[in-house]
């Protein structure tokens, strides 16, 4: 059986990790919860760039790297491909499909924080569902705006922001209740894909709310790419 280094930090990665035996390693950056009930080994923290990861692959006699990180975690994905190249082990990736706008959607695509704030200029009550990045900009909240920021933890407080510390999956009913209670006038999102956080898009559509969508970063080519967990696990089983 090949020894796998699985790069994770997503629900999909956790599903893969649950299927890996004790000889494999699940790697997390250390920002979120560290599972303590996995059959495989778990390591936490950065490797020290692609060179550090290449050294880890050699030292731990890893045969295959699987990148199942979030589609916006571009640095670790680039490092995985580089490290695999240096250590001469293949790199596979789980690349879940992006959401596509549907009839009635009003998506406004932006590339970075400056474009994002420009796109929000005419709104009053944005809901940010981008993770922690807005927390670094609390002092820049325009006078006419009140921000709601949904992310994993709420280390800050601010008189013109509400920070909702919560993790998905989010249901349609829950999103409807939140949207109606908070009267958002725009939603800010990454195009994460998958079903766990998709309900907000459906409710935005129902309410006729625009979505300011941060474009996906470019990710490097890998030896094999999978769109879902089942296909990846099957390929792993066949290659064992
Ligand atoms: P990133 O910008 O691509 O990576 C920054 C650095 O964090 C990497 O260079 C690496 O440090 C370390 N790192 C990231 N993922 C790692 C992993 N699985 N194992 C070990 N080290 C890791 O990543 P990010 O956007 O900060 O995301 C960090 C973690 O959160 C990832 O596991 C990702 O899957 C998860 N996540 C991210 C998002 C998002 O929107 N970005 C959303 C949900 C979950 P070294 O260079 O020192 O190795």
UniProtKB/TrEMBL annotation:
This is Cobalt-precorrin-6A reductase. NCBIfam families: PRK08057.1-2 (NF005968), PRK08057.1-3 (NF005969). The lineage of its organism: Bacteria, Pseudomonadati, Pseudomonadota, Betaproteobacteria, Burkholderiales. It comes from the Bacteria. Pfam families: CbiJ. Keywords: Cobalamin biosynthesis, Oxidoreductase. It is an enzyme of class 1 (oxidoreductase). One of its GO terms (molecular function) is oxidoreductase activity. Pathway: Cofactor biosynthesis; adenosylcobalamin biosynthesis. Its EC number is 1.3.1.106.
């Amino acid at each position: 059986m090949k020894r796998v280094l699985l790069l994770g930090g997503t629900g999909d990665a956790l599903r893969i990790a649950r299927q890996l035996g004790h000889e494999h390693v699940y790697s997390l950056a250390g920002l979120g919860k560290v599972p303590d009930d996995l059959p495989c080994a778990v390591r936490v923290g950065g490797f020290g760039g692609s060179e550090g990861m290449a050294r880890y692959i050699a030292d731990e006699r890893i045969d295959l790297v699987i990148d199942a990180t979030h589609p916006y975690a571009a640095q670790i994905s680039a490092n995985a491909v580089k490290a695999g190249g240096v250590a001469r082990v293949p790199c596979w990736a789980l690349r879940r499909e992006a959401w596509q706008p549907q009839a009635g959607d009003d998506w406004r695509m932006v590339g970075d924080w400056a474009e994002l704030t420009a796109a929000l200029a005419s709104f009053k009550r944005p809901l940010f569902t981008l993770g922690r990045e807005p927390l670094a900009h609390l002092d820049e909240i325009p006078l006419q705006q009140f921000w709601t920021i949904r992310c994993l933890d709420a280390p800050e407080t601010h008189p013109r922001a509400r920070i909702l510390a919560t993790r998905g999956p989010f249901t349609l009913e829950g999103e409807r209740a939140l949207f109606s209670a908070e009267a958002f006038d725009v939603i800010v999102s990454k195009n994460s894909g998958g079903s766990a956080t998709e309900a907000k898009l459906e409710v935005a559509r129902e309410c006729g709310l625009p979505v300011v969508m941060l474009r996906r970063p470019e990710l490097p080519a890998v030896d094999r790419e999978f769109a879902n967990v089942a296909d990846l696990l099957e390929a792993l089983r066949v290659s064992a």
